[in-house]
Amino acid sequence: MSERAKFINLCGMAAVGARWRKDPASIQRLFFDYDTGRKIGAMTKALAKARKIYRCVEAEELEKVVGSVHHGGIVAVVETRELESPRLGDLERWAEARESVLVLDRIGNAHNLGAIVRTAAFYGVKHIIIPDTAMSAWPNDAAFRVAEGGFEHVTVWLPRNLVTLVADMAATGFAVVGAVTRGGNDQVENLKATRAVALVLGNEEHGLSPALAAACTHRVTLPGTGAVESLNVSVAGAVLLDRLLGR
After folding, report:
1. What is residue 186's predicted lDDT score, i.e. its pLDDT?
2. Strand extents, DSSP E, the chain
3. How far is Cα 55 from Cα 186, in angstroms, rounded to an integer?
């Protein structure tokens, strides 16, 4: 596994609030502006009791903490979580419970990753799988900010081999739906709610790797006018999740 930072910054009340409700002990330090400070009394009281650092600061200092103007008035420094590789037993339990899964093949832009996670949480996706490659965006500051708390509602997994994992998912009963730019012959609506679904999204420039596309049980292509070749991957993912999981 690649070496990752031990701490990340969560920015904005949506992300910080979601983490606070799920895992308050992971918050190590908290910085906020004056307006936000009036809304988080319970949070600062608990941090004080735990003898953790919290501080009301000017907006300029918040910018220095995160290196960005996009701090949303509050920044929590939190411990990162170790990502595990799913085992065959995990896949079997997910399939039996019909839990939805997103597989991301080298999604390289952290903002795209965050947008996908936000959509996944909205539609009740339980698991997101990313490969440990240099081309893959990691759940970092930017991804958490864009996800607006979505990361607290999904579990992110890091498999040893993505193609093997997808083949194992197919063998355990998942409908593994690969999104391809062209040539996908399956109708998304026909796959809805028939069994556990895993949606596989590919790299922004190159799409799915040939080996991964071959491991999918279904391949779908969103029809368009042809004016542009394809949608942004986060938008395509949202459309497909709505058709697969929406009511």
Report:
1. 58
2. 7-11, 27-32, 53-56, 74-79, 101-104, 127-129, 155-157, 175-179, 197-201, 218-220
3. 54
Counting Cβ atoms within 10 Å, is residue 25 exposed (0-12), middle (13-18) or buried (19+)?
exposed
**Domains of the chain, with CATH numbers?**
7-79 (3.30.1330.30), 88-245 (3.40.1280.10)
Separation in Å, CA 112 to CA 20, 108, 187, 244: 24, 8, 25, 20
Q: Sort strands 53-56 and 197-201 into parallel, antiparallel or unpaired.
A: unpaired
- Band (pLDDT 50/70/90 cuts) for residue 2 is very low
Mean pLDDT of the residues in the chain: 90
Structure token digits, residue 81: 């979580």
Distance CA 109, CA 32 (A): 27
Question: What tens digit of pLDDT does each residue of 192-210 get?
Answer: 666 789 999 999 888 899 9
